[in-house]
Amino acid sequence: MRSGAALCVLLLACAPSAKIDEKKAEPTKLESAPLPPPQAAPGPPPFRGPILSLHKKEARSAGVIAPGKRAAPAQLAVLEDGDLLNLDFGCGARAQVSGPAIVAVSGRSDQGLLVRQGLLRVELPPGAAKPGAACWLASPALRMELPRAARFALRVHEDGRTQIAVVSGRVTVATGTLSAEEDSGTQALEAGRLLEANLTSATTPRVVTGPSTLEAALSLLAAKARAARTVTAKQLSDSLENRLLPGLKAQIGRAASQLERARTLDQQHRLLVSARDPQAMVVQRQIAEQAAHTFVARRSLDAALSRVEAARLNATEVPAPAPMSASSIEPMLSRASELLR
Questions:
Q1: Contact indicator for 310, 116 with CB cutoff of 8 Å
Q2: Residuewise pLDDT in 10s, the chain (341 residues)
Q3: Among 124, 267, 289, 304, which one has the highest count of C-beta atoms within 10 angstroms of its own C-beta?
Q4: Which residues are CB-contacts of 296 (< 8 A; sequence separation ≥ 6)?
Q5: pLDDT at position 30, please?
Q6: Nearest partner of 143 among 317, 316, 309, 330, judged by Cα
Q7: For the chain, what percentages of helix, strand and coil (3-state, to nearest 5) are there?
Q8: How would DSSP label each residue in 144-207?
Q9: How, if at all, do strands 143-145 and 162-174 pair?
């Protein structure tokens, strides 16, 4: 009897352990379950263009302003005489465009503004600037970075001629002839100075003493704009792209050459490092020097492309016909954008 009882006790003691073993075996079933699908790679950041609000001439007496909305990439605005368009950029800059005007938000940058025609009031008060990509503005004659603290008036005429009157702060303007041998020809413009740049800036932009207040600057540039309308639409369409596209082509070649040089040096450096060759240090210094040349070339290409994009704007969303065939223009613009990525 004692042996039978001992056997029962032994069986009872083993029973729970068998159940535990069964529970331990259950997770092996989960290991064979299908894995969740991989998450998609994060896409580009959302387009954060300026907030736009339009004040129509006919609504001015009632004080009606269209509710502000965020601009879409490459959004075009055509203003009639008397219309006002306010733009509030993420960088802190505020611009007001007075019609008649043709402007567009850049399709390549949510902080860029293309101006084909119009009178602009631009303000970036001290402390308003926010971190991130700098705001910029381009006309057929120039491109400029919006500074951290400045107030200025800008007028783009129908023939592409551009005037800037700075009343406070300091701005940097890129004009230049767009030849392959030259960079964008940046020029600093201090407060109290007025700059006038022609379409291709074949000559040095003229700088004279300007007005001291923003209201006086706006009045002066608006008056000069009314007196400057002497060319026909046919003359304008025949000249703008015809004069800018060769310069863009030259800057594309220059930027491509500098980028290829940078890639060649990088590959050479990696081979020397893997071979533990002391010449790797020499090539590393060459890479640093080349980086500066590449930066200048890409900056000049960006200025040239922005000016062409501004020149191509018209009253519709379709660019005006160019003297070259479309098959040769679009690949050129695509190539320029590719080099700037």
A1: yes
A2: 455 554 444 444 444 444 444 444 454 444 555 656 666 666 667 888 899 998 887 665 555 556 789 998 889 999 999 899 999 998 888 999 999 999 999 988 888 999 999 999 999 876 655 555 678 999 999 999 887 788 999 999 988 889 999 999 888 898 866 554 555 567 888 999 999 998 755 567 889 999 999 999 999 999 865 554 555 555 565 577 778 888 899 999 999 999 999 999 999 999 999 999 999 999 999 999 999 999 999 999 999 999 999 998 887 654 544 444 444 678 888 999 999 98
A3: 304
A4: 183
A5: 43
A6: 309
A7: 40, 25, 35
A8: EE--SSEEEEEEE-TTS-EEEEEEEEEEEEE-----TTS---EEEEETTEEEEE-SS--SPPEE
A9: antiparallel
Q: Which residues contact 341 (CB under 8 A, 6 or more apart)?
A: none
284/163 Cα distance (integer angstroms)? 44
Q: How big is the chain by its Cα radius of gyration, in Å?
A: 31
In 3D space, the residue among 156, 163, 112, 114 whose CA is nearest the CA of residue 136 turns out to be: 112
Q: Where are the alpha helices (DSSP H) in 233-279?
A: 233-274
Place of tokens 């320029």: 336
- Report the candidate in 294, 297, 296, 223 with the shortest Cα–Cα distance to residue 264: 294
- The residue length of the chain stands at 341
Would residue 74 be called left, alpha or beta, if left means φ above 0 and alpha means ψ between -120 and 50 degrees?
Answer: left
- Is the four-CA dihedral 77, 83, 88, 89 of positive or negative sign? positive
**What are the backbone dihedrals phi and psi of residue 69, each rounded to the nearest 5 degrees, phi first?**
-145, 155
Nearest to 187, CA basis, from 160, 210, 206, 200: 206
